[in-house]
Design a protein that fits this description.
- The complex is a heterodimer.
- Chain A is an alpha/beta fold.
- Helices cover 38% and strands 26% of the residues of chain A.
- Chain A has one domain: P-loop containing nucleotide triphosphate hydrolases (Rossmann fold, 3-Layer(aba) Sandwich).
- In chain A, the strands form 2 sheets. Chain A has a 6-stranded mixed sheet, with helices on both faces. In chain A, strands 2-1-4-5 form a 4-stranded antiparallel sheet, covered by helices on one side.
- In chain A, a hairpin with a 2-residue loop joins strand 9 and strand 10.
- By secondary structure, chain B is an all-alpha fold.
- Chain B has one domain: ABC transporter involved in vitamin B12 uptake, BtuC, CATH 1.10.3470.
- In chain B, a hairpin with a 2-residue loop joins strand 1 and strand 2.
- The chains are: A alpha/beta, B mainly alpha.
- At the A-B interface, helix 2 and helix 3 of A face helix 6 and helix 7 of B.
- The site of adenosine-5'-diphosphate has 11 residues of chain A, from strand 2 and helix 1.
Chain lengths: 234, 291
């Protein structure tokens, strides 16, 4: 479904991505794990088109989208739940969800909103409240719900468990697993390597802008190098 | 006593409505870009001068008004495209200086295209005064207030009820997240300049039968609209409307009870007082319902 070849990106003179190759097949849940500063967010920004590239190409459903505008990528079916949730704080929960349909418009908005509310009942309770007043976990649910409103083919998740209490982390990972079961293709970026690799079909390990390991989720979990570098300390 | 107070109030609310529209223009562009567009007053002038020019050339008034609004919106869009967009990566201060440059350029252009004289537009529905508790109400005053109310309600509807309006607000709160929703944030900037220019033009056109217009009329009106926006809290739509009315009424009262020499000073005193004592304006900038 998506393929990335030789992706390079800089912040000024700092090279944040040094030739990334990876792919995500339709229906897969692929995890990308790596320490803080490895370049995970930069990669997701590049996939959504909001990060300037100095080299490489991104293919989506057989088409080269390297130069496609960010807004048009959403139209193609790539949605991102960005790091730090990034909800529209002063707008209501419901308005945040409606904005998720911006590229799609379509007639079933009310129905889709209900679907998100079924998945996250707390959002229904707070539907008229400003998104900024929600707790971190609730904002994460809202950010995920908002991305789902666009009917994405590929969902990019940037550290959805960051800063959440263990119970909430579990709930978020359960949600991600459910979404995969419903057929959404997912690219999950996490520092929480254990949890992410445990639910992933395949995984990549990113270190200072380079993919250093790849394999089945379960194999990476069992890999000694991965264990030593990421699983012990996290 | 009452009748002269009422007379001052009427004239204050009338000019205040124009300051409110101008202040809304400031706020919309500020929300989209954090730029204070000092060419906002020139939008008022261009709207008014084009309407006068078209009407003098024999174009029927309603058509002249519509064309003048469209011309001004085109100027707003061009300003964004040619002067602001290319410098988008520059600091906000640079962008503000660009808008000051643009305002000087537009005044110069107006002087060349038209002239330096004062111009009047005929009143929309006659000049027969209406007596209101001893005060005089001109029919054009009703046009001004009615137009302002309708425009403000339309704006409130646009920003609070339509997806396009909410997308513009979303862009002002979080441009990155807005992009990730598929919102074209460049287009939002363009729309906000077009919209603000249109607001300025509408205000300038309806007030011209009362106050006359000239190529440099935008300076004062722009500064007063700016003080309205600052008073209400830059970026706060309802605040800009309240701020406009307060500035308008305050200066009408000062002119009426003190001396008309103090009229223009009022707006400046308000700007200074707000900046010193309440930098976020009367209503602050935060809140869920900023237009
Ligand atoms: N806005 C920025 N300006 C300069 N350097 C940045 C910026 N954002 C990230 N970086 C650098 O790029 C590298 C990758 O960052 P990032 O993609 O955020 O990593 P991760 O998401 O894996 O924590 C880091 O070295 C970081 O310091
Ligand atoms: Mg990150």
């Amino acid at each position: 479904m998506m393929e990335v070849r030789g992706l390079i990106s800089h912040y000024g003179r700092i090279q944040a991505l040094s030739g990334i190759d990876l792919r995500v097949e339709a229906g897969e849940l692929v995890a990308l794990v790596g320490a803080n500063g490895a370049g995970k967010t930069t990669l997701l920004r590049a996939l959504s088109g909001v990060q300037p590239l100095s080299g490489g190409a991104i293919w989506f459903e057989g088409a080269d989208i390297t130069r496609t505008k960010p807004a048009d990528r959403v139209g193609l079916g790539i949605a991102q739940v960005p790091e730090g949730r990034q909800v529209f704080g002063p707008l209501s929960v419901e308005d945040n969800l409606k904005l998720g349909t911006y590229r799609r418009r379509g007639p079933n908005v009310a129905q889709d909103i209900e679907r998100v509310y079924t998945q996250f009942p707390i959002l229904k309770e707070k539907r008229q409240q400003a998104a900024g007043t929600l707790s971190g976990g609730q904002q994460q649910m809202l950010a995920i719900g908002r991305a789902l409103m666009s009917h994405p083919k590929l969902l990019l998740l940037d550290e959805p468990s960051m800063g959440l209490a263990p119970l909430l982390v579990e709930e978020i990972f359960r949600t991600v697993t459910e979404l995969k079961k419903e057929g959404t293709t997912i690219f999950l970026v996490e520092q929480n390597a254990t949890a992410a690799l445990a639910i992933a079909d395949r995984g990549y390990v990113l270190e200072t802008g380079k993919v250093v390991l790849e394999g089945k989720g379960a194999d990476l979990l069992a890999n000694d190098e991965v264990k030593a570098a990421y699983l012990g300390g996290v | 006593m009452l009748s002269s107070f009422l007379q001052f109030l009427i004239s204050g609310v009338t000019v205040g409505a124009i300051y409110a529209l101008c202040g809304l223009g400031f706020s919309i562009i500020f929300n989209a870009s954090h730029v204070i567009n000092f060419a906002q007053g020139e939008f008022i002038m261009i709207g008014a001068m084009s309407a006068v020019w078209l009407a003098d050339a024999g174009v029927p008034l309603p058509l002249a008004v519509i064309l003048a609004i469209l011309v001004t919106m085109a100027v707003g869009v061009l300003l964004e495209k040619l002067a602001v967009e290319p410098a988008r990566k520059a600091s906000v201060t640079t962008l503000i200086i660009i808008t000051i440059g643009a305002s000087i350029f537009l005044r110069g252009l107006a002087q060349e295209v038209w002239d330096k004289n004062f111009h009047k537009l005929e009143s929309f529905s006659g000049e027969t005064p209406i007596n209101l508790l001893g005060a005089v109400l001109m029919p054009q005053t009703i046009w001004v207030l009615g137009t302002a109310v309708i425009v403000i309600l339309l704006l409130a509807w646009f920003f609070n009820r339509t997806l396009e309006g909410k997308a513009m607000l979303a862009t002002s709160f979080n441009p990155l997240a807005a992009q990730l929703m598929g919102i074209n944030t460049k287009r939002v900037l363009l729309i906000s300049f077009g919209l603000s220019a249109g607001l300025g033009a509408v205000g300038g056109i309806v007030i011209t039968p009362i106050t006359f217009t000239a190529y440099d009329n935008g300076i004062m009106l722009g500064l007063k609209g700016f003080s309205a926006a600052v008073l209400g809290g830059l970026g706060n739509g309802a605040g800009a409307v309240a701020g406009g009315l307060i500035v308008g009424i305050a200066e009408a009262m000062a002119a009426g009870y003190l001396s008309s020499a103090y009229k223009d000073a009022v707006a400046f005193i308000i700007i200074l007082a707000v900046l010193v004592f309440m930098p976020n304006g009367l209503f602050g900038r935060k809140g869920t319902e900023r237009v």
